[in-house]
What we know:
The chain is an alpha/beta fold. Helix content is about 40%, strand content about 15%. A hairpin with a 2-residue loop joins strand 1 and strand 2. The site of pyridoxal-5'-phosphate has 13 residues, from helix 6.
Amino acid sequence: MFSAVKKTLxxxxxxxxxxxxxxxxNMRSRVFAEGLKYNILISNSNLHIMSKHNQTNxxxxxxxxxxxxEHSTPMFLTSSFCFDNAEEMRAAxxxxxxxxxxxxxxxxxxxxxxxxxxxxxxxxAGYATxxxxxxxxxxxxxxxxxxxxxxxxxxxFGSTHTVIAKYLPKYGIESSYVGANATEAEWEAAIRPxxxxxxxxxxxxxxxxxxxxxxxxxxxxxxxxxxxxxxCFATPVNQQPIEFGADLVVHSATKWLDGQxxxxxxxxxxxxxxxxxxxxxxxxxxPALSPFNAWVLSKSLETLDVRMERHASNALFIAQxxxxxxxxxxxxxxxxxxxxxxxxxxxxxxxxxxxVCFELKGGxxxxxxxxxxxxxxxxxxxxxxxxxxxxxxxxxxxAKLSEAERQSVNITPGLIRISVGLEHxxxxxxxxxxxxxxxx
Length: 440
Ligand SMILES: Cc1ncc(COP(=O)(O)O)c(C=O)c1O
């Protein structure tokens, strides 16, 4: 009886696409017929709202509406999913259907978040993870094997450096670095016969170097090497690495994608064949995104576009106001003409993003006084929040690097990183200015 009711509900028409009438069931089989069940860019409930405008996709991609007719997407806080009979269950386990089995494999709310990220990044498929680091680590472990070589830019997030330098060698995976200012010839020269993946961040954390995605994308294509780009700092509303030849894009969703400092999350999107390997690795090893966090993150994506516009305009205002301050030795913001990679930044990014970095003339001691004098900005180990945040990378996120390694990626003792929030720009600036005044 209950089973019959459920079947009827499942067959309700849920979408009209180019005058073709889809029910939830035949859309599911259509998606499955098109490939992997986690190839979710065109997933069952989403066909009718895919738009050429990503602002719309970030808002309107949604799980199939239940018979409760909710407007906002529900939370699917469940570890596992039920089957009507043994045959359906067998078929799901045999990958003959795309039915959900267990939330370590898939979950409708997590899928919604991934659907949105695929639409925003222009990717074929994706998998969401518990944190940014599990997205990075999963992409390495699923695709690299003993004897392979990973070529990375040296200006990368501290924990990513730890994974590359400390853990990959345990699995017999070689690695080497090139500098953020490497020319095309230097990148070419660093490629080895066993180079399987190129990894980079742009803009980099925390030094805000901007790498030329088109140039590196060309090299990766030429040598048939996987290009894996951490797009955490820019977000897909600002830069879409796949457009420039990236095969994979990883994110710490903990940062701008959440945007309010509430949950940890990560996601990797890109080529379907590569995502399949990452999915299989993660499905067995367990770094799945929590369905609760997925709900929070998916809701956050609805406002990403407007948030990033304001973060960037506030950041540009702060950067311009501080650039010639007497306490500041140098300041970096990708959309200031003084930035060494300004030309590349304006070619591949829509705006300069929400991070501003500066080096205090007084070095470490001045940095300490500055941080201790802030009244509104938060001192916290995060970025990409509505609340402005100040941090000191040399003593926190990049403390595990040696002094020489920090110097090589421009992390000087007096470097301050500001994640510019959504408070009024005058309030952010006046707090920074009064803290700078305390230094002298
Ligand atoms: C550029 C970048 N990538 C990856 C990560 C790791 O993300 P998570 O903290 O979500 O694991 C971070 C965290 O700060 C980051 O800044």
